[in-house]
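Sequence, please.
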């Protein structure tokens, strides 16, 4: 089984007196036509997928460097490292190329917003990211698409409770 190592971040920013995090809506492959609704039924819109910014660790790069780089590439913002939150481990089957099973570990770090404008990303990055946005932290565990990422956000919330100085 192939192994992959990725890293990403939960970027915190205080906005209007409440914490928000940077999330992305990944770009989708719209080359497949939508399925026709059963007769007599209305067409159902696709659900918006929200996720944390993350990506593969490049050779010679440390996971925390990857997290900072991926956050910048996928959201347009610059952040500083606070600490590691958790590792998520899972297996998936590649839907492209060789169709191999992959064991993946994603290390997530708690980051603090430093500068930049959300969604200010390169046109080349639009292949991966449809948009980036600020999401209220209190809504994140309900709105993120992936269970492991929802758990990571809950860890960030716990961290904030025990470290109010952040």
């Amino acid at each position: 089984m192939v192994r992959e190592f990725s890293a990403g971040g939960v970027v915190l920013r205080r906005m209007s007196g409440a914490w928000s995090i940077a999330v992305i809506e990944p770009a989708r492959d719209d080359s497949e036509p939508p399925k026709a609704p059963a007769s007599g039924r209305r067409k159902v819109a696709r659900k918006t997928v929200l996720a944390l910014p993350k990506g593969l660790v490049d050779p010679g790069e440390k996971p925390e460097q990857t997290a900072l780089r991926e956050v910048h590439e996928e959201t347009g913002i610059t952040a500083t490292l606070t600490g590691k939150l958790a590792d998520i481990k899972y297996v998936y089957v590649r839907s492209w190329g060789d169709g191999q099973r992959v064991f993946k570990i994603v290390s997530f770090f708690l980051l603090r917003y430093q500068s930049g404008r959300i969604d200010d990303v390169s046109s080349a990055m639009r292949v991966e990211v449809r948009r980036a946005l600020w999401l209220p932290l209190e809504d994140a565990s309900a709105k993120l698409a992936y269970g492991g990422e929802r758990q990571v956000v809950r860890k960030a919330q716990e961290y904030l409770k025990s470290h109010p100085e952040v």
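The domain at 2-28+48-162 is CATH 3.90.79.10 (Nucleoside Triphosphate Pyrophosphohydrolase).
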